[in-house]
Amino acid sequence: MADFVGAVDQGTTSTRFMIFDHGGNEVGRHQLEHEQILPQAGWVEHNPIEIWDRTVSVIRTAMQKANLRATDLAALGVTNQRETTVVWDRRTGRPYYNAIVWQDTRTDRIASALDRDGRGDVIRRKAGLPPATYFSAGKIQWILENVDGVRAAAERGDAVFGNTDSWLLWHLTGGVEGGNHVTDVTNASRTMLMDLETLDWDDELLSFFGIPRAMLPEIRPSSDPDTYGTAHAPGPLGGDVPLTGDLGDQQAATVGQVCFAVGEAKNTYGTGNFMLLNTGTELVRSNHGLLTTVAYRFGTAPPVYALEGSIAVTGSAVQWLRDQLHIINAAAESESLAGSVPDSGGVYFVPAFSGLFAPYWRSDARGAIVGLSRFNTDAHLARATLESICYQTRDVVEAMAQDSGVRLDVLKVDGGITVNELCMQIQADVLGVAVSRPVVAETTALGAAYAAGLAVGFWKSTDELRDNWNESRRWQPAWTDDQRSAGYGQWQKAVQRTLDWVDVD
After folding, report:
1. 22, 456 Cβ separation under 8 angstroms
2. What are the residues facing 296 on neighbouring strands?
């Protein structure tokens, strides 16, 4: 048996390749950013060719730096930014259009029309999702309707769709030379096209968007020895490696955080925030603005479901301070700048750049900074930005408690922003519960590696994975109940100021 498992983590702003040993310890990595293409307000795109090129580069470089060969890897997993939509020509491998990113809001009219005639209720019942710009189906419809030749190519069977996992798996398994057009249940559950009970594409849902079934990848389990094929030489690995794991990024983080028991939850801090609560094999439908989604499916075992609270803008709000306002030079500076003042000075920042996701689902909302006076400085805005990350998380925690009856005792956290210790302390203060960060904070890649390794027996059971989990740091709440209540009350007032800003037909 080889000694390591690799994982491609294709995210919203970058792609990385990470290598783990049996103890879940990182032994190698390489990461590269890709361009964020912003053609007009509300539009966000990526170049799929650039993403594939970055994937090739990070795999080769990480393997070289770790002095490893393909034969050292027992298996390979893939995890990805969910909902981001690629449509390409299976004969040539060329995308018909840039990838339309999950943050993109150009499909707001498509989404709003679904609720006017009752189709939205069908989508909620079958797919567990509200009609929203977030998900893939509207993006596929937009490409079919607005890019010349794609509709005809789709009807011929030449134009195919995938999220970025499918795009990479197709290339890794041969591309135009017979690459496998596949996805897993977690990614399929983010399209508005899969029935959560049958775990298959649904003809009624497809008809709502005018999407030919032939465009869609085959849906397979998240972890299975026969699932995705082999990453072939002379590809980036320089040899054949079994491809046995595929998970959407937030589901991968759930696996990486070993949230295998009903009631266990994790929160991932990345471009956005994503909290998942394991509900077991039971489908729990939300009445409070959350999503019902597939958490994972291992082999032939029944699928495990989750409630999810998806927040569009958290880490990217810090990037906005850096790239648009230029009040910091690096994301890490947000902690020192925010820490130079004791509080936000009455400022609240609601970063509804792409509308509001859970639990509001308001595409008409736009960002707002409220409570300003001449007293306020860039430091107050930096602290309000960190607080916005934490208050949005509380919105989701409150909705989860209402839907599931579960009150958290501790919140497991992961992702890039968890290195910001001030932000994590604010999170504990805002929630009134302990916040726990694991030793391996990049649990998205780790979860993809776990799924791949379980499929080939590199890890024998989820109990082995639990044994790998270790806490790095824990933050305890320091605010009084009065402080917490007052702050959250002001946050809720600030959210109201963002609504009805954009007219949506």
Report:
1. no
2. 304
Backbone angles phi, psi at 210, to 5 degrees: 65, 40
* Pairing outcome for strands 45-46 and 99-100: antiparallel
Q: What mean pLDDT is predicted for residues 374-387? A: 96
Helix (H, G, I), strand (E, B) or coil at 479: coil
Integer-rounded Cα radius of gyration of the chain: 22
CA angle at 214 for the pair 210 and 220, rounded to the nearest 5°? 115
Is there a contact between 120 and 130 (Cβ–Cβ < 8 Å)?
Answer: yes
Give the number of other CB atoms < 10 A from CB of residue 484.
16
Alpha helices in 289-377 (DSSP H): 315-320, 333-338
Q: Where are the beta strands (DSSP E) in 331-467?
A: 348-350, 368-370, 410-415, 434-438
Locate all alpha helices (DSSP H) within 405-505, ordered by sequence.
421-431, 443-455, 462-468, 481-497
Report the candidate in 242, 235, 263, 271 with the shortest Cα–Cα distance to residue 82.
Answer: 271
The secondary structure of the chain in percent helix, strand, coil, rounded to multiples of 5, reads 35, 25, 40
Instruction: Count CA atoms within 13 Å of residue 268 on its CB side.
Output: 31
Q: What is the pLDDT of residues 37-60, one digit of tens each?
A: 999 988 999 999 999 999 999 999
Helices (H), 76-135: 108-116, 119-127
Phi, psi of 195 (to 5 degrees): -80, 125
Q: In what order do the strands lie in the sheet with 230-231?
A: 26-33, 14-20, 4-10, 73-80, 241-248, 230-231
For tokens 């993809």, the residue is 448
Structure tokens at 427: 């999170």
pTM for the whole structure: 0.87
